[in-house]
Amino acid sequence: MHHELINGTRLEILKLNNNRLSGPILTFGPTTLQYLDLSNNFFTSFDQHPTFLPWTHLKVLDLRSNSLKGSLPILPINTSHFYISNNSLTGNIPELFCNLSSLEVLDLAGNNLSGSLPRCLGNFGDSLVILDLQRNNFEGSIPKNWIKGGQLKIIKFSQNKFQGHLPRSLAKCTMLKVFDLSDNQFNGTFPFWLGHLPNLEVLILRSNKFYASMETAQTYFKFPRMRILDISYNDFIGMLPLRLLENWKARQFENVDPLTYIDENPYFKLQTSNGYYLYARSYTYSMNLTNKGKNMFYEKVLELFIAIDFSSNKFVGEIPKFIENLKGIQLLNLSNNYLTGHIPPSLGNLIELEALDLSQNKLSGDIPQQLTQLTFLGFFNVSHNNLTGPIPQGKQFGTFENNSFEGNPGLCGRPLTKTCSNSDEPTSHPTIFEESQNSGSPFEFGWKIVVIGYGFGFIVGVIIGPIVIARKHDWLMKTFRIRPLSRKRR
User: Fold this and answer.
1) DSSP calls for 416-483
2) Measuring CA to CA, which residue among 128, 334, 101 is closest to residue 231?
3) How many helices (H) and strands (E) does the chain have?
4) Structure pTM?
5) Are 362 and 341 in contact (CB under 8 A)?
6) What residue ranges do the domains of the chain occupy?
7) 12, 290, 444 from 451: Cα distances, Å
8) Integer Rg of the chain from CA
């Protein structure tokens, strides 16, 4: 940035985003600057260290997606929106950040920041709406008095080195909508007290060190708006905790625009010398989730997306019948556990299901024919179980490959090379006659009479017929008007 541009007399709003600007960011200029957007450029650093930004009236600072190195800048006390994700910053969060009593958005994702969270972050009070610290190297535990509640809607701590227990003070965040703690080292039992949060829709605890049974949480704590629950790659034990979703409301989002995404749109009205400027910068939630057997990155998450991932734990027992109540679910992953019993035929009622993974368990019995009703099913995996019998044929099952069924010696039929014996094939429906023979129905006696009468008539006809014909030849010829065959002339 040129010195003359920054040093404008009454400059209040400056937007230079989405260009090819490079070099250092000059930290001098008019104190009147309120809005500065330099995102999506090639800036490499600030022109001084440590960096104290001089713009005392600054409200919004957006430095996303540059090549910035060094430490975080010290923000003016009135800053409310700070975006600096996807850079190469190092160091920790300065204690001076605790003076930002009006901060609403703090987005530090995708850097190389480290250290622990300042104990004084609770000073954010009721102002903070979005806190995104994902993809850094933060460590330590979350301070017990870290949050007072208020307006927090999105917390993303994923892909760091956090550890310890979750503080129950988070239960005060009644506006919380997304809570993503994946890929850390958090431990302790399942935070069932989060079930009281009335707006929580996304809870991701994947790849941590949570343990113990979740059954104690099922009776008292519900998740009234839960749609995405991922607790995979932990050490949970006991029965599948599907009762946590007892308040599942399949159609609670039926009036939602199918193309809307999980996001927040914090608005801010800047009062400038030329009037008011309405600031709106959308923050879109992104996440990682195992889908179709692969770890997938969702840059955007549809409001209508519904998923459960309980895989890679130590759950035991049968798949409960309650699973049929999860109407509207699109992704269900129960793989890599110790589940036993049969696959419930009622899974065929989950007609929105697109991915079903039951692999790496101890399930037995056959694959229910009812699963062919899942016309949206694009991924199906029951490999490495104890399943037997023929694989259902038709519809989506014609698209699944061998690896969906391998590791089940008792399975047969396409796409496996092992063919089914006659005893394995589905039995044909009996005819009406066969049913009557075996059913003991009122028609049984009638059939016997017909058969006896038919046999008796045949015998009488064979014995008596020739006699009648011989003696009454003329009478038969007249009665039935039968003419004798004339001989042809040669």
Assistant:
1) SSPPPPTTTSPPPPPPHHHHHHHHT-THHHHHHHHHHHHHHHHHHHHHHHHHHHHHTHHHHHHHTTPP
2) 334
3) 4, 35
4) 0.82
5) no
6) 432-479
7) 104, 66, 11
8) 37
DSSP type of residue 382: -
Q: How confident is the model at residue 436 (pLDDT cuts 50, 70, 90)?
A: very low
Please report the pLDDT score of residue 61 as a whole number: 94
DSSP state string for 249-311: -TTTTTTS-TT-BSEE--EEEEEETTEEEEEE--EE--EEEEETTEEEEESS-BTT--EEE--
When pLDDT is cut at 50, 70 and 90, the band that residue 176 belongs to is very high
Measured CA to CA, the distance from residue 460 to residue 27 in angstroms comes to: 120
Count other Cβ atoms within 10 Å, centred on residue 380: 24
Distance CA 458, CA 489 (A): 40
What angle do helix axes 443-471 and 432-439 make, rounded to 10 degrees?
120
Is residue 448 pLDDT above 50, yes or no? no
DSSP code for 5: H
Task: Say what the pLDDT of residue 210 is.
Answer: 96
Q: How confident is the model at residue 252 (pLDDT cuts 50, 70, 90)?
A: low
Q: In the prediction, which pLDDT does 458 show? A: 42
Mean pLDDT of the chain: 81
- Lowest mean pLDDT, pick from 17-26, 255-264, 472-481: 472-481
Query: What distance in Å separates the CA atoms of residue 233 and residue 213, rounded to the nearest whole number?
Result: 14
Position 128: which residue type? L
Angle at 69 between CA 64 and CA 70, to 5 degrees: 120
Amino acid in the structure at residue 90: T
Measure the CA–CA gap between 115 and 96, rounded to whole angstroms.
15
Burial 269-295 (b: 16+ CB within 10 A, else e): ebeeeeeeeebebebebbbbbbbebee
Mean pLDDT over 439-460 rounds to: 41
* Residue type, position 60, single letter: V
